[in-house]
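Q: For a teaching session next week I want to show students how multiple molecules come together into a single three-dimensional assembly. I've collected the sequence lines for a complex. Could you give me the predicted C-alpha cells for the whole thing so I can convert them for display?
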Amino acid sequence: MPDASVPVVSMRNIVKRFGNFTAIHSASMDIRRGEIHALVGENGAGKSTLMNILYGLLPRTDGDIDLRGEPVRFANPKEAIALGIGMVHQHFKLAPSFTVAENIILGSEPLKSFGRLDRIRAERETKAISERFGLNLDPRAIIATLPVGLRQRVEILKALYREAEILILDEPTAVLTPQETRELFATMRSLADSGHSIIFITHKLREVLAVSDRISVMRQGRILSTIDNKNVTAQEIASLMVGRSVLLRVAKNEAKPTGELLLDVKGLTALGERGETAVDNLSLSVSAGEIVGLAGVQGNGQDELVECIAGLRRPVGGQVQICGTPLRPNPRGNREAGLAYIPADRGDLGLSLESSIWENMTVGHLGKFKAGPFFAATRAKQRAAELIARFDVRGATPDKAAGSLSGGNQQKVQIARELTRDARLIIAEQPSQGVDIGAIEAIHRTLVEMRDAGRAVFVVSADLDEVLSISDRVLVIYRGRIVANLKAADTDAEEVGRYMGGLDEEPASVGALPKETQHVV
Amino acid sequence: MDLEILNSAVRISTPLVFAAMGGLLTYQAGMLNIALDGFMIVAAFTAVATAYFTGSLELALLAAILASMLLAALMAMFNIKFRAHIFIAGTAVTFLAYGLTALLLKGVLGQDGVFTSDRIPTFPVIHLPVIENIPIIGEIFSGHTILVYVAYVFVPIVAWTLYQTKWGLQLRVVGEAPEAAAAAGINVDWVKFQAMLLSGLFCGFAGAYLSLAYVSLFANKMTNERGLIALAAIFFARGNPYLTAMVAILFGTATALSVRLPQVTGLAPQLLQLIPYVVTVLALVLVGWRTTRARSRHSAWRFDIG
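A: Of course. Below is the structure for the complete assembly, covering every listed component.
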C-alpha cells in the first residue's frame, strides 16, 4: 500500500447551516491515500451534506478543507472535479437517451476544430478506460438499455475519466444484487490499491465491515469517531450511530397463518413500460396472520406486480383476489376490497408533500368526517393529532406540511393513514427505504403487530436484510417469476442472493408454484 | 393549379421556420418557450420603426434582433434567475410585448392598429442565377428575399450545432437530464440562458421578415399565433430540426392553400382560412394519439400533471 499516513483530504470543523437549521455542527475527517473509508450514519445524520460540501455542491458555513495539504474552497463541482474529486450519486446522474461514451465525456469532451465533438476519440477513450479498470462496457450502448449495475459502472468511469483520485460513492450498493455488490467491492479494492481514495457512504453495516479500511460514524451532524476496521462488530457501530443499542433483528413470535388467503394471485401476467413481459404467469398467495417478503433485484417485475395488485396497472392475464374479491383495475375498488398500500414512492404516490399532515392522514378516511354536506375539519385534525402521538411521528403537528418531515417520519404518516383503515391486506413497498434505524424498528414492530392482529402483510423490499428479518416466508422474484418460496427461518442471505441473481433452478420442494414456462422478453 | 401556391408556401413558411428553430433550441434545452409570439411582435415593430426612421434595412434587421433578444433575456431572467414558472413568464412576456408594441405604435408612430408608409424600405427580391432558369424549381425557389434563404440555411446549421458540437451535446443533456449536466460541471442555467437568447435571435429574424419582407407594415398582433404553430411543429417532430422545418413548411403550405383556394374555387374564404388551423390541430391530435398509445397501453396510471 502507498504511504497511507498522509491525508489527501483533511476536513476540519466543518459547519453547515440552512437558515436557522444546523445540518452539520462540527465535522472533522481525514481521508488517506489508497484507503476505503466508510462514512456511516442514519438518514439525516449529515453524511450526504458533508460530502456535497467536499464535492462543491454546497458551500460551507465554516471550517477548513485541505486537499493534498492545500486549503481549498470549491464554488461548484467543476472546481472539485478539476482537482481530482469524483462523486457517484445515489440517484445516478446520467442522461438516459445518450450513449455510454457521451455520458462519460460530458463536461470534458474531446474536440476537433470548430468545437466539433470527436466521437471516434470519445468512444476509443471510453473503451480504453473501461478496459484499464476492468469495467467492461460498450461505449455505444444507450444508457436506458443498461441494467442498473452497468449504469453504476458508467458513473464510476465518468469520475475516473476526469482523473478522480478521491471517489465518493453515495449508497452505491442500494440497487445491486449481492453478486453485483461483490463485483463493486472488488473494483473498489483494486482502485484503492492503485492509489485512489474511496469514501463509501452507506448504512449497511455488513458491507462496511466487509470492505472498508476505516470507518467514520456520523450522528446528528457530528463525526463521533473514526475507527480502524479491526475487531469491531456491527452491533458496536449501530450503537454509535443511534446513540443506544438497537435490535438488528425483529423480535417476533412464530407466525400463525390461518390459511385464509387475503391475497391470492394466480397466473398473473403484466407488461412493463416498454411492452416487455414484466410479470410472467406469476402466482403467489399471502394468508392472514403471516408476513411474506418479496426479495429481488429492482426491475424484476416487483413494481409491476404491486401496481397490478393496487389497481394501478392493467394486467394482460391472470387473476388477483384481495380478501376474496376479484381484482379490478381501479385503485379505489381494490382499497374498498381491503387493501392498505404503503408505496415506496412516498413523495409522489404516497403523500402530497405540500399538503399538511392532517390532510394527508385524512384522505381515504373522508367518509368518517361527514357533517351533513360539509366536512368536519376540526375532528379530522383532532384525529391526526392522536395518530401523530400513536405512531410517534417526530417533529409533527397536524398543520405542518408533510414535506417538512424527515423520510422516516413521512413513512410513519403514510403508515398511520393506511393501517388505520379497515383493510386486512397490507402491502408495504420498501418500508424502510430512507428511514433511520430507530424508525425502522418502530415500523417493523407495527407490521408485526398487524400480523398478530390477523392481517396479511406483504413486504416488497430490495433490502435483503430487511426481507429476511421481518418475513415469515420469503419469495424471490426473478424476471417476473417467483423462483423460490422459502421459510425465512431456514434460509440465509447467501441462498436468497443466489435466487435473486437467477443462478439457481427452482428447488423441487417448492409447492404451489407455476410450472416452468418460457420467458418472453 | 399553378406553381404560385408553392412559391407562396415557401414565403409563408419562412417565419414559421425561423420561429420553429428558435423554439427548438429552448425545447431541446428543456424549456417550453411560449413567448415566441412576444419576441416576434417586438422584432416586427422595431424593424418597421427603425426602417421608417433610418431608411436602412440592415439597421432595421439588427435592431429587430436586438429587441427580440432583449425580451428573451427578460424572459430568461424571470424563468431562470427568479424561478418563475415558464408558462407564467412566457404569458407575461407575450402580453408585455403585445401591449408595449400597441402603445409605442400610438406613441411613436402616431397610429392605431396598423402602420404603413412609403418611406419603409422593403427587402429586395433575389433571383438565383442558374436555378432561376430551371423550370418548376426556379419558379418555386427563385425570386424570394434574402431572409427566406437565410431561414432555410439555418435549419442544417441548427441541426449540425445540436448534434455535432460540444455545445449541442451539452444543451441536449441540459434539456433531458439537468442534474446529470450539473454533476458533469456544466452550468445548466447559463446553457438555458444561451438557448433562450438564441431563441430571441431567431424570432428577431422572423419578426423583421414579417413586417419588412412578407408585408411592409406593422399591425397589432400581426404574428397571428405563428409562435404557437411553430411550437406545434416542434412537438410533432419531437425536436428533430429537419422534421420540424418540414412540418413548419406543411403548415405554411396549408396557409398558402387557404389564401389561394378562395380565388380558385369561389368557396367562402372565411371557411378556407381554417385550413392551417385544422392541419395544426390534426397534427397535434396525431402527436397525442401517438404518445398515449406508446405510453399507456400497458403502463401504470400517471398522476403527473406538471
